[in-house]
Amino acid sequence: MPKTLAQWLEHLETLHPVGIEMGLDRVSQVAKRMGLAQRPIAKRVISVAGTNGKGSTLAMIDGVARAHGQRVGTYTSPHLLDYNERVHLNGEMASDDQLVAGFEAVEHARLESPTISLTYFEAGTLCALWCLAQKPLDLAVLEVGLGGRLDAVNIVDADVAIVTTIAQDHAGFLGTDIAQIGREKAGIFRPGRPAVLGSLDLPDSVSAAAEALSSPVYQLGHHFRHTANPSTYWRWQGYTQDGDALSLDDLPDSGLPIDNAATALQALALSGLVLAAEPTRDALANVVVPGRMQWLGQWCLDVGHNPHAADYVARHLPEVSPGAIQWGLIGMLNDKDADGVIAALSSRISHWVCVSLGGERGRAADELAQRIAAHGGRVHHCAATPSAGADWLASRLGPDDRVLATGSFFTVAALLAQPLPQA
């Protein structure tokens, strides 16, 4: 009897002795057996790497391209509620049947002699690429995982490669040297193909990697830029694939980082898409990225889990009314920089609820509470789960209070799976 999607996902967890193993040899061999290395998965491919901002950049590329009539497929990770979120085809999540067919293709290929072991992420990436390749796509947009050079997504040669930001994260795999992290992320660049640098503050190692490949470099603030117009609108200036200057005016603020929006537009222009003002405005006005500054009533949910992301949240969190409380509900994994995140948020939040996350990487609420106290914050409650933390707040929220729930995908996912209390 064929496996269900849930059974496939359970099976994938047994395929490899470790959850993460950097390297492309095994995944490249299976991709060749699947026929993925012999033909492009789409007419154009854009890959997005970086520490933060990948998801919102990808979402804006997807939305703007589809608003221009393009057929677009995307691959992202991780997911919040359903595994299907990782693969979208023309704006729709991949169905269970499509993903099951993809995993069957992966399994058939990896079991050919000699059998090849794959990690959960590698098998999922190959399944996603197979699903994308089944459709006649004008554009595929791929989010690179924790690395770049040795990430499974990097078996695909991108026509345009983006690095959004560089900061310390996943230190156990990427180390703590920012220049080295930059070189790893820049491993998605290809000789002679455009490299889009989506931050004003990237280590020199990123541009150096592009220049070593003779890749044309387009950096935010130098080769493309955004400037504020009156009210909430902004202007983008960049270049087309042919090197012609291009500008778009009166673009709406989507609530997502405008650096990322400008980067998305530059990448699309370099992919050959002729950007028009109206569809671009419509797409940016309607783009939503679940779990990124996502408001549900009094709650703001953000998956930020490193100091760079937390700093952005702190700077963009609206002020509460006089006398109201800005609560913070936080749950983090034990391999993340909790002190850095707490320090970044402490300028805006002094009233906290700490929650424990389960699993081998989970961090206990009590430990978070000790760290918050060391930074001068007040912890009102420690809960065993994010849901229990939300339940504790239910009877304590005032009508003008707000709650930032943050620290991990796991924290946000648990809260998205339930109705959140409102005063």
TrEMBL record:
<dbReference type="InterPro" id="IPR013221">
    <property type="entry name" value="Mur_ligase_cen"/>
</dbReference>
<comment type="similarity">
    <text>Belongs to the folylpolyglutamate synthase family.</text>
</comment>
<dbReference type="GO" id="GO:0005524">
    <property type="term" value="F:ATP binding"/>
</dbReference>
<dbReference type="GO" id="GO:0005737">
    <property type="term" value="C:cytoplasm"/>
</dbReference>
<keyword id="KW-0289">Folate biosynthesis</keyword>
<keyword id="KW-0547">Nucleotide-binding</keyword>
<dbReference type="Pfam" id="PF02875">
    <property type="entry name" value="Mur_ligase_C"/>
</dbReference>
<keyword id="KW-0460">Magnesium</keyword>
<dbReference type="GO" id="GO:0008841">
    <property type="term" value="F:dihydrofolate synthase activity"/>
</dbReference>
<dbReference type="GO" id="GO:0046654">
    <property type="term" value="P:tetrahydrofolate biosynthetic process"/>
</dbReference>
<feature type="domain" description="Mur ligase C-terminal">
    <location>
        <begin position="291"/>
        <end position="409"/>
    </location>
</feature>
<feature type="domain" description="Mur ligase central">
    <location>
        <begin position="48"/>
        <end position="193"/>
    </location>
</feature>
<dbReference type="Pfam" id="PF08245">
    <property type="entry name" value="Mur_ligase_M"/>
</dbReference>
<dbReference type="GO" id="GO:0046656">
    <property type="term" value="P:folic acid biosynthetic process"/>
</dbReference>
<comment type="function">
    <text>Functions in two distinct reactions of the de novo folate biosynthetic pathway. Catalyzes the addition of a glutamate residue to dihydropteroate (7,8-dihydropteroate or H2Pte) to form dihydrofolate (7,8-dihydrofolate monoglutamate or H2Pte-Glu). Also catalyzes successive additions of L-glutamate to tetrahydrofolate or 10-formyltetrahydrofolate or 5,10-methylenetetrahydrofolate, leading to folylpolyglutamate derivatives.</text>
</comment>
<keyword id="KW-0436">Ligase</keyword>
<dbReference type="GO" id="GO:0046872">
    <property type="term" value="F:metal ion binding"/>
</dbReference>
<dbReference type="InterPro" id="IPR001645">
    <property type="entry name" value="Folylpolyglutamate_synth"/>
</dbReference>
<keyword id="KW-0067">ATP-binding</keyword>
<comment type="pathway">
    <text>Cofactor biosynthesis; tetrahydrofolylpolyglutamate biosynthesis.</text>
</comment>
<keyword id="KW-0479">Metal-binding</keyword>
<protein>
    <recommendedName>
        <fullName>Dihydrofolate synthase/folylpolyglutamate synthase</fullName>
        <ecNumber>6.3.2.12</ecNumber>
        <ecNumber>6.3.2.17</ecNumber>
    </recommendedName>
</protein>
<dbReference type="GO" id="GO:0004326">
    <property type="term" value="F:tetrahydrofolylpolyglutamate synthase activity"/>
</dbReference>
<dbReference type="InterPro" id="IPR036615">
    <property type="entry name" value="Mur_ligase_C_dom_sf"/>
</dbReference>
<dbReference type="InterPro" id="IPR004101">
    <property type="entry name" value="Mur_ligase_C"/>
</dbReference>
<dbReference type="InterPro" id="IPR036565">
    <property type="entry name" value="Mur-like_cat_sf"/>
</dbReference>
<comment type="pathway">
    <text>Cofactor biosynthesis; tetrahydrofolate biosynthesis; 7,8-dihydrofolate from 2-amino-4-hydroxy-6-hydroxymethyl-7,8-dihydropteridine diphosphate and 4-aminobenzoate: step 2/2.</text>
</comment>
